[in-house]
Amino acid sequence: MGAHPHGADAARVKVELAEVFARHGAAYQATHRLVPVQYRAIAAIQACRTAALGGHVERCNACGELRYHYHSCRNRHCPKCQTLAKERWLAARRAELLPVPYFHVVFTLPHELNALAQGNPRAIYALLFQSVSDTLIEFGANPRWLGGAIAATLVLHTWGQTLGQHLHIHALLGAGALAADGHWITSRRGFLFPVTALSAVFRGKFLAGLKQLFSAGTLKLAASSAPLADATSQRHLLKTLYHKPWVVYAKRPFAGPAQVLDYLGRYTHRVAISNNRLVSCSNTAVRFRYKDYAHGNRRKVMTLTPAEFIRRFLLHVLPSGFMRIRHYGILANRAKREKLAAARTALDSPPAPQPPEPESVATFWLRVASLDIHQCPHCKAGRMIVIGPIPVPCARAPPLPPL
């Protein structure tokens, strides 16, 4: 495996993640122990938009051309199933944006925690969310910085450009806070919270939570079934983490809501790797493009064995039902409507518009690509009419291993 500078790949045959799993997934599963959610992700990505999921047949009402449409898997780790979900999510968020600048802050866990996260993803990811949100809420409530309730959206990412484990949260925060008496507190221009102080508090909260998890005796190391019960090892890890600098990075504030939505669209529904980054898949190697941030964002191509590529991808399959996008402060679901209305009143802003009805697939493609999916692709004059279903094949997939 290795990396080399990115060259011209214009003539390459299009490769998809589904092909990698179709060619190498069975061999990998035969030699590696997976959890059920990983089995389901592999199966869903392979079956997406194929006859395995069924679909429907369309016929042009002018020329009689037939077209076969197969259903999507809708798995959140599938690179082909996120575009429409992202657009519908963004449409709902437009009504929640406040007329203020927004800040983007990134909280990163030290890589010494990677193995612990592999064995205990739900517990470590939940603790990461809790530590980041508590830190931001605490700073927002402190009169030294703001003195009120913040508006924050947090997004979990677990990967880096080479599919390695890189656990971090992207936090999007409005520049200000809603005071208890109902007025809006504006942050200092170009500044929200000091990142050095954020880093220290974030580290303290996470390590305090990790110590509690150790005390419960249920955390496990990756590739081990035994609880991490050695108190000496626990103390050593906590001491190492405490003396290590924790990275909190604040980017320049966004100018307004339009930039915020553009940012959200790039981050919220991203999967570990998209199909357009894949270069080739052979019997011995998978090649994909990445940005080398250590060398000026230089574009390169990495080559991995199929087994290593699959291993890295599966690191980022989230636990079943785990929410990777969460809202806090005045955006918390339990009182969002009332608090957002109070914030808009304090900002002398008009009431938020009602969220639109979910956009249909046809409307979406017409808006983003000027593509009329009901137009006949053959004669360009007729309309494609559904004439019948494509049933799901009778053969069933192998049963999942027991939980």
Task: Give a written overview of the molecule.
The longest helix has 22 residues, at 195-216. The protein has a domain at 95-272 and 315-346: 3-Layer(aba) Sandwich (Replication Protein E1, Chain: A), CATH 3.40.1310. It is globular and about 70 Å long. With 403 residues, the chain is an alpha+beta fold. Mean pLDDT is 88; it is low at 4-11 and 397-403. Strands 9-4-6-5-13 form a 5-stranded antiparallel sheet, sandwiched between helices. The chain has a 4-stranded antiparallel sheet with strand order 1-12-11-10. The chain has 11 helices and 14 strands.
List the helices and strands and how they pair.
Layout: E1 2-5, H1 17-31, H2 36-47, E2 55-60, E3 66-70, H3 83-94, E4 102-108, H4 114-119, H5 121-141, E5 151-159, E6 165-174, E7 176-178, E8 184-186, H6 195-216, H7 231-242, E9 248-250, H8 257-267, E10 278-281, E11 286-292, E12 298-304, H9 306-314, E13 325-329, H10 336-346, H11 361-369, E14 384-390
Antiparallel strand pairs: 1-12, 2-3, 2-14, 4-6, 4-9, 5-6, 5-13, 7-8, 10-11, 11-12
- The proportion of strand residues reads 15-25%
The description of the largest β-sheet is: 5 strands, antiparallel
Q: Please give the CATH class of the domain at 95-272 and 315-346.
A: Alpha Beta
* CATH A-level architecture of the domain at 95-272 and 315-346: 3-Layer(aba) Sandwich
Q: How would you describe the shape?
A: globular
The share of residues in helices is: 25-40%
